[in-house]
Write a structure and sequence with these properties.
Blueprint lengths: L1 H8 L18 E6 L3 H10 L6 H9 L10 E8 L2 H8 L7 H27 L4 E2 L9 E4 L3 E4 L3 H7 L3 E3 L5 E3 L5 E8 L18 H5 L4 H5 L5 E2 L2 E2 L1 H19 L26
Antiparallel strand pairs: 1-2, 2-8, 3-8, 4-5, 6-7, 9-10
The structure holds iron/sulfur cluster (2 copies).
């Protein structure tokens, strides 16, 4: 498939370090229907500014002839490599070189993959659009959740059966939480991936068993508590990392991800005895 082949073979999948190491390991892929009721539920929960797959498609190509049930949201997870995770596990305040590279150059890979997937679908005669690359994509303030946006890659991945949310707000997948995520909406009918969960926090040991909270202990900003993640505290810390990344590693970057590494849900769905 296009996504797996890009990550396995493309020279674009690079951390842009001296050894041109791969930015990401083998991806996970899942599908959700364009008319999945979850997308309307997101609108209700997050705010009316959240754009459904159909709205996105209509805004991009015009509403004529576009039906929600004819759309599929293709979601993918790009797991961090073992080397990147191992480096960041050792850190206590600032990100490792590989982690900061994965945040900046890895996200560039993700942007190229979204474009590549759209182009591959278009070539096959299917109209397609990457939500976060549209002019409609923007940051917003949700009355309930604070800093939000008009599309959420993680919520699309949740709809596509790829994972559930953790105490730190990250998506815990079968490849863990140390990953980046993307999606493309296409006019193609693909059977949706079954969601092997009924609760949006099923895989997190805190929500399932009242234990763990190891992501909170890892956070240098004190941004994670039993109430969840304080997005502003997190953002303030991540902003502070840019001076460190420039001085220590010599490129313009930032990152953190300490709550995504060195925790039981880093690389898999955690089990109770690990909490
Ligand atoms: S580290 Fe523990 S509490 Fe935090 S998200 Fe992972 S499983 Fe949940
Ligand atoms: S990314 Fe860093 S600052 Fe933000 S919640 Fe995770 S550990 Fe805390």
């Amino acid at each position: 498939m296009v996504i797996e082949a890009f990550i396995a073979d493309s020279p674009e999948n690079t951390l842009q370090n001296n050894d041109q190491e791969k930015a990401f390991a083998k991806p996970l892929v899942g599908f959700s229907r364009g008319d999945d009721p979850l997308y309307e539920a997101y609108k209700e929960h997050v705010g009316p500014f959240f754009v459904s797959p159909w709205e996105l498609f209509a805004l991009t190509f015009g509403a004529k002839g576009v039906r929600p049930e004819n759309l599929t949201v293709i979601s993918y997870i790009l797991p961090q490599t073992e080397a990147t995770k191992a480096d960041n596990r050792k850190e206590k305040i600032y990100p490792s070189d590989r982690w900061a590279r994965a945040r900046i150059f890895g996200e560039e890979v993700n942007v190229k993959l979204r474009r590549h997937l759209v182009a591959a679908l278009t070539e096959k005669g299917c109209r397609a659009v990457a939500p976060v690359l549209t002019p409609q994509f923007s940051r917003r303030i949700s009355p309930q959740y604070g800093l939000s946006s008009t599309w959420s890659e993680r919520h699309a991945a949740y709809a596509a059966g790829l994972g559930t949310f953790g105490l730190c707000d990250g998506l815990i997948t079968s490849a863990g939480k140390a990953m980046r995520v993307g999606s493309v909406v296409a006019e193609v009918q693909i059977p949706p991936t079954p969601r092997p969960y009924h609760d949006h926090r099923a895989y997190c040991l805190y929500f399932s068993h009242g234990i763990c909270k190891k992501c909170a202990a890892r956070c240098p900003a004190g941004a994670i508590t039993e109430a969840g993640k304080d997005k502003n505290k997190c953002l303030q810390h991540v902003r502070k990392t840019s001076a460190y990344v420039k001085e220590r590693f010599g490129f313009d970057g930032y990152g953190c991800g300490l709550c995504q590494t060195g925790v039981p849900c880093e690389s898999k769905i955690p089990i109770k005895r690990e909490g």
